[in-house]
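User: Can you predict the 3D structure for this chain?
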Amino acid sequence: MILESTILIVGLFVLVVWGFPIAFALALISTVMILVTPRMSLWLLAQRSYAGLDSFVLLAVPFFLLAGKIMEEGGVSERLMKLARPLVGHLKGGLAHVTVVVGMFFAGISGSSTAEAASLTTVFVPAMVRRGFEIRFATSLAAAASVMGVIIPPSILMVIYGAVANVSVGSLLIGGALPGVLVGLALMGMSYLFALWYDLPRETERWAGLRALIPGLKESSLALLIPVIVVGGITGGVITPTEAALVAAAYALVLVRFVYRTLTWRDLWRIFGETALTSAVILFCVATATVFGYLLAYYRFTNLVAAYFESVTRNPTLIISLIIILFIILGTFLDATPAMLIFVPIVQPVALSVGIHPVHLGVVIVMTLAFGLLTLPYGLCTLTACAIAKVPLSEILVTLHILMLGVLVVILVAAYWPTLVMLLPRLLVPQFL
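Assistant: Here is the predicted structure, written as structure tokens:
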């Protein structure tokens, strides 16, 4: 069985390096292994794919994507900036702090880091360059701030993790709130140090007071109701996470089309098509990764990994440290969805056996995979920001890695101090734990 597992994993790696899209690489190598394995037939491919998609929770994915896409193209970032500027613009390097705060707000609306990377880069990188910021810092900050999109609720990755690991999606979403905000504060701290070093300008000389926030609140308050609807509905037991996603998408549609009037019906039809395509890619990846993960279990690779972890240590701190290292490596080469689908079933039993709470584990893994959205060669947020800002990757690596240290510190704090993750779920949704 070790030989088959090795062929399966090495074959996937070779196909990905060769340039195959990850979902097709998973499907191809799984099909080959099914064909050459006795007692297996191609019916298994269809059966396991269907089993991977047969989850009510996964219905939330396209609706959260739709809500985020509508808000991204509906000009919501500019409205959020009108609130963030008087809030933190008086700090040294004001526009950098505004970028991070808008990233926090937008994360509570979109649920997608790549959408947030595109929005923040489009709006803030040109503005920061005009204010005298170096483009490499501006682009790095937009990319780094976008990782909050899959940590602060709503989060598509939290939904997928909940479906894979059979963990309450509501508790995962709420558990990511405090760590996500802490990521934003860490990036603001790093930005302040950069502002001191490069003598970056403030947006205002001093804080203008609470009255200055009123115009921005009027502009953005309706958009900021989305995280309130999602989290409030789930914690109140009024709606499920899937229903919350549907309500968020419907609310975003009405808001942007009939209140803000920033999108036409033609724009919306295009957004529907793009969302359907993105959803199909994600769910196809879920299906193929489910088959791949089943084969790993069939070849008893999961047992080998579990035995290795247990032979190394039974200390929860060391176990979660090894899990973080594993998912940082995976995030460098794999998309977050297949990495989660394949390896969560392997590491989760080990973590639970040493007393790590499944919600705590889930939030830490999602945060680590969000960190992987910045690491090359597969860092989608970094690639998106560089493509939009038209900056070569080589020019931002040093600055980006410095900012990434702040994100990594927060991941470690969340890993070693479970209360940071578990506090809000225990207060708001103890029935889900």
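The mean pLDDT is 89. Residues 169 and 408 are 24 Å apart (CA to CA).
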